[in-house]
Amino acid sequence: MLVAVLLQPKRRVTWDRFGSGTEGMTFLFEDEELVDATDEARTFLANGPISLPSWPRFLALLAGSFPDIGARAARLPEVGIMDLRARDGSARLEAEWKNGLTRFALHQGEDIEPPEYDSFSVTAMTEEVDILRRVVDDAPLLAWREDEDGNVTWANGAYIDLLYRMHPDRTTLAWPLPRAFAHTFHESESDVVYRVSVNIPYIEQVIWYECTTREIDKEVLVYATPADRLVQAERSRLEFLQTLTKTFADLPTGLAVFDRNRQLSLFNPALTDLSALEPQFLSARPTLVAFLDHLREAQRMPEPKDYKEWRASIAELESAASEGIHQEIWSLPTGQTYRVTGQPHPDGAVAFLFEDISAEMSLTRRFRSELEMGQAVVDSLDEAIAVFSRTGSMVLCNRAYQELWHCELVGTLSDIGAQDAVRDWSALCNDDALWSRATRFLSGNDDRRAWSAEIESAAYGKVKCRFMPVAGGNALVGFTLGHKDLPLPAPAAESIPQTA
What we know:
With 500 residues, this protein is an alpha+beta fold. The protein contains 16 helices and 20 strands. A hairpin with a 5-residue loop joins β16 (384-388) and β17. α15 (418-425) runs antiparallel to α16. The termini are far apart. Mean pLDDT is 79; it is low at 1-14, 17-21 and 489-500.
């Protein structure tokens, strides 16, 4: 008999289903699933956030009038029944729990008469509310409301979608809704932008938002707009600035950028070495005039004859740099040589580059000195010498050659070709075979081996001609005269090369 009692299934207590004629707003939940409701109750429930399941939507609709509805509903299995009054006295909520089933009955306050509306007004307001709800839920930004304790009392569809992305293992959401952000916005200042982020665990992604708040009664309404592109742009800009900073730090050229007010806004370490100015002075953002004044005191710019001329040179340098690329060579009292380049930058700024070209100038001077010495050596020779490149252009001749052929080579030597020179040389004698061989030798069409010839000239007697290759594919031609008693007749006008 005892076994039969134990094996007999336990009878579950149920409520009758609500018929279509049942009045009032009555809801029947099994745990968090809506199993039945009156027509008026379903209409009421349809006004809640469409992106939420039935139970969180039911709590969201009641949270405004019954702030602690979530906590009180959670205790129903313990207390069995519940009777709540709305905080404004306009409604009453009765609840009863039996074996997993919870029945809620929502009544309007007895002292509040329902307003009378015509059907057209009701239809218009219903359509407007539906449009507003869809606009808010479909907005591409997050919107939610927080109470004084930081609980989320309302949220739009974008916020709920974010919660599902953050908790992909959940199939439904409880009420109050979970917090998506750790920051509490209830005590935040209005019209202040707060940048916050959330982590999406399963894809290891960080999403950034910029949030602004608005106070509504004792609660706060928060709007969050996506800021991923802005954060990425700021990071790219910071990385670019860091790259530029490292590049400027390693440059041997001094850089000084003056803003539109002509105050130093950017400089690199090389500038402190080239200008001999202290970093503390440069960090204080001196003006362009003060900067150049300290350069003059440190003997890092040419010393002017008077102060008026120096100020005029500064104004000229500034105006030239602001209009286009301007370059000057400064020979310093210390013996150094600087190349100063000024060029305009956006928004009226001006940048100056300081390069120490002392070694370059020293090499140029030494190279020019060697050229002058080499020219002086060949000019001291009695032999008339000319050097031609592999393309047949004259690159060098001495004074004896110029005196012999009655020409003054003031301009570019490359203007004189091998054929023009051979035409002048043919005035020495009428040996066509000799001059043809000389033309082939200078043009590179013949085997360039050293050779010489001795001719008989009516003006100079025996003249020794020598042809030999020199370094770099060039060719040297020399004429040694027997005597200089008679001058060589001047060539025809059309055969004399014109040099500028």
